[in-house]
Specification:
By secondary structure, this protein is mainly β. 3% of the residues lie in helices and 39% in strands. It is built from three helices and 28 strands.
Length: 538
């Protein structure tokens, strides 16, 4: 990493201050200590490898070159300029207006194996090992026996899912901006109103760079069993498994996703006024993207690599409304307080030194995604099973006029509890499972028209309380404090995410089928928790 920046604060007038800056950043692409890495090259439909001593093969060619590309097989991104500008204007002694704009770059991500080129062939091979269910069955192997000796040692795109980073990948960046008005209502009391926004560009996501494209038809229309599904952009990248040609899937780390966030934020803050410190923060927001996370999350990969715009919907973390109130209150009883200031030691030990604190959280429910498993003939990425490597998130079709949810609050949903203890939250009548073939018997697209993250859980409510009592021991060297804490003090039932996988009989051309399984909630957030503590300081 290398960074160069210039920044200055300019007091234009006694009321107006500007903060101006420009930053240049450089983060090199990943390299490997011994140059054991390989990358896919679309122009030649082959891989280049830096692995020393590798003689080359039909699909993997040695590369010897200099510079950054010669160490990483990815060109450096040298245009990461990040301007920043901010201002603060004192309208009156009690009113201030602030605003700003800034660009921030992301050079490295925590994305598992999806963007790690050293795990490509010839340094590593992806193979499947089927372990028998029974210890007594033939072929069962214990951990100390290791892998079977007959595993594949020769690379074949037809059986090996590789990792690919486009050689001219540009770094992800976020443009952030805000405008804020703050007013002091009284001493130690203020109110704040702000617009906050950001726009993410070239965000990293994972998809199959050689995904089958249903709009181009199947590879062998006269003999479907001889091919492997729909036409691919790189039809020669594959290999035979027996007598059947298997297209090779390519996990592509694509910096081509985007996001948008807008929020109105209001804040009331009171700092130790008559023993009370209080902060209330309210947010009204809308967050949308087509890739909320590249590893964890509801939707780490898209439904269709050829139509990323169809995945643009509410973010995995989109909470339209949130209000969090926190307070700390010193009770006005006992020595040195407004009431019972002259209490004797016994009374003061009972009523003095108490402090109450609370955090109350109220916010909208969490978005959830719904997917299904298509027929094997319709699958467009058969080699990739993990979403963090670009497996397709197939979504169902929507039935117009139907509500996605069967209930809308924790208590009402508990009334729908089933015999197995789960709550059926998703309305099966709101969806149909896509058909496998059309009326003429042709294999058709497995992609449904449901939006990504089509629903959300019930609203979330929780109140945490704490009661502190400080004891006066009569010695400066010895202090005692009692603490009672109640988390989710009112024991509100906050339901967790429903299961995302819908199951059932797939539709046929002449009859649509609703799901018959999935979409049930089987867990909740924490119930009421009470704990006590005694702390001695000496």
């Amino acid at each position: 990493m290398h960074n160069v920046y210039v920044q200055d604060d300019w007091k234009v007038t006694p009321k107006l201050t500007l903060n101006l800056g420009l930053r240049w950043e450089y983060g090199s692409p990943y390299s490997e200590e011994h140059n054991n890495l390989s990358n896919f090259v679309p122009e030649t439909v082959s891989m280049l490898t830096l692995t020393k001593g590798y003689p080359g093969s039909a699909f993997i060619k040695p590369y010897n070159g200099g510079g950054v590309y010669g160490k990483t097989l990815v060109n450096p991104a040298l245009g990461d300029y990040a301007p920043r500008v901010g201002f603060a204007y004192g309208v009156t002694p009690a009113i201030a207006v602030r605003g700003g704009f800034g660009t921030s770059f992301v050079h490295y991500t925590r994305a598992g194996s999806g963007d790690i080129l050293p795990i490509n062939a010839p340094n590593a091979l992806f193979v499947s090992v089927i372990q028998p269910a029974s210890v007594a069955a033939a072929g069962y192997r214990t951990v100390d026996q290791g892998f079977p000796p007959d595993l594949a040692t020769t690379f074949s795109p037809g059986t090996d899912n590789i990792t690919y980073i486009p050689k001219n990948t540009k770094d992800s960046y976020v443009e952030s901006y805000f405008l804020e008005v703050q007013k002091e209502l009284a001493k130690n009391t203020l109110v704040d109103l702000a617009y906050i926004g950001n726009h993410g560009l070239k965000l990293q996501g994972f998809l199959n760079g050689n995904q089958g494209n249903p709009s181009l038809g199947i590879a062998n229309p006269t003999n479907p069993s001889a091919g492997a599904g729909f036409v691919r952009p790189f039809p020669t990248w594959g290999g035979y498994v027996g007598t059947t040609w298997n297209y090779g899937d390519i996990t592509e780390a694509l910096n081509g996703f985007y996001s948008h966030y807008d929020a109105l934020q209001a804040r009331y803050e009171q700092r130790f006024v008559n023993g009370l410190t209080l902060l209330d923060s309210f947010t009204w927001q809308n967050s949308r993207d087509n890739a909320s996370a590249s590893l964890e999350g509801n939707t780490p990969s898209p439904q269709d690599a050829n139509n990323l715009r169809a995945d643009y919907s509410q973010s995995d973390y989109n909470l339209p409304v949130a209000n969090i109130l926190s307070l700390v209150y010193e009770l006005p009883f006992g020595k040195g307080r407004a009431y019972a200031a002259s209490a004797n030691s016994f009374v003061n030990a009972l009523i003095g030194g108490w402090q109450v604190s609370a955090i109350n959280t109220m916010q909208g429910g969490t978005p959830f995604n719904l997917v299904y498993t298509p027929n094997a003939a319709n699958v467009v990425s058969p080699q990739i099973s993990a979403t963090y490597r670009g497996a397709n998130e197939y979504r169902p079709n929507v039935v117009p006029g139907q509500n996605v949810r069967l209930c809308h609050s924790g208590h009402s949903c508990l009334n729908r509890k089933q015999s197995n203890g789960t709550v059926q939250y998703v309305n099966w009548s709101a969806f149909t499972l896509p058909a496998t073939r059309d009326a003429c018997g042709n294999i058709i697209s497995p992609f449904g028209n449901a939006s990504r993250n089509p629903g959300r859980t019930p609203n979330y409510y929780s109140t945490d309380l704490a009661f502190n009592k400080r004891f006066d021991t009569g010695s400066e060297r010895l202090k005692m404090e009692f603490r009672a804490e109640l988390y989710n003090a009112f024991n509100h039932t906050n339901l967790y995410l429903p299961s995302s996988g819908l199951s059932g009989t797939l539709s046929i051309a002449t009859a649509l089928s609703n799901p018959s399984g999935g979409g049930a909630i089987s867990g909740t957030f924490e119930p009421r928790i009470v704990q006590f503590g005694l702390k001695v300081l000496y």
